[in-house]
Amino acid sequence: MEFATRAIHAGQEPDPTTGATVTPLYLTSVFTYDEIGKTKGYDYGRHGNPTRTAFETCLASLEGANHALAFSSGMAAIDAAIRLLKPGDHLLLAEDIYGGTFRLVEEITRPAGIEATYADASDPGVFADAIRPNTRLVWIETPTNPLVRLADIAAISDLAHTRGALVAVDNTFATPYFQNPLALGADIVMHSTTKYLGGHSDVVGGALVVNDGGLRDRLYLTSRVAGAIPGPFDCWLTLRGLKTLAVRMREHERNATAIAKWLESHPAVERVHYPGLESHPQHTLAKRQMSGFGGMLAVDLRGGGEAAAKVLNSVKVFTLTGSLGGVESIISYPAQMSHIALAAEERYRRGISDGVLRLSVGIEDEKDLISDLDQALPVAV
Length: 381
Ligand code: PLP
Fold this sequence. Notes:
Helix content: 25-40%
Strand order of the largest sheet: 1-7-6-5-4-2-3
Structural class: alpha/beta
Number of helices: 14
Radius of gyration: 21 Å
Mean pLDDT: 97
Bound molecules: pyridoxal-5'-phosphate
């Protein structure tokens, strides 16, 4: 079946006991045994819940995978994946990763005795040179935050596998609608389901998706024993979000493309970063490894920090906040929000100038979004 059909039906058969068409919200932490040693597949809410199973089954299907595991947040999912490593192992990460991942590695993973280094993942050869004999896991994110740069998943997976390392891809920006890293050779896909998968900015969650049964069991052990599981209502909300993922992603992309093109010709704009534009340095790679370009873009303003502040303080339809992937359009300021922890020189080195704004383009009417940006952008610089 095709993606949009699986989003609505995978894991969501009518409830066997009542015939309820929509997956019920099983608000229970305990499940009664039939007799000692015999259950109906569930015993305790930390170990599993039918609403969670429905969500995991649907997400696995959307990634074209065998298994998905839901977590209480994207960070809990990343933490569970990194717990595959033991002291003395090496973790190689792309330089361009979500700030929270960087913080987790620096403040929790490294003090636990795991080696961690970062390298530029935009060139697979250069990135693979940073693999060491004890590298067990390679962590990449594509497209990246905020400049929507790409990493070549297939090339990196090939190189990492010849060196004995697993490859994990944070697929939050692209979603399974536009990119399936496992089909390109990766071993683990991670999602902050808080973003597009939930899609309505009303629930926090995360997930890991894998094909290998042994890997699934190791990750499930962490979920079951460490316990960073989502509650049934979080799973129910996110599953409801998944039903409309295909429709929403098409609209996010349509609006983002229109806005990216409009911004490219605006006199106050130095540069637009969007993988769907021919001016994007990795447009060819985007066409090869993604089936669409998503709803995230960044814009570099000619007037630097002052121009950025004008836009941020003038928008009326775009919401000024830090997250992304909801139906509403969101504008954020990497220099003082997601990337505030980076020293200015390091931030500039990564191309994130004081004039860079990040847009998570929602699914409002394109005309209203463009006129909002039009009234907010400086007239001339
Ligand atoms: N990965 C990416 C790309 C993100 O943008 C985020 C959150 O913004 C995370 C991971 C962490 O997810 P969560 O906030 O659900 O813990």
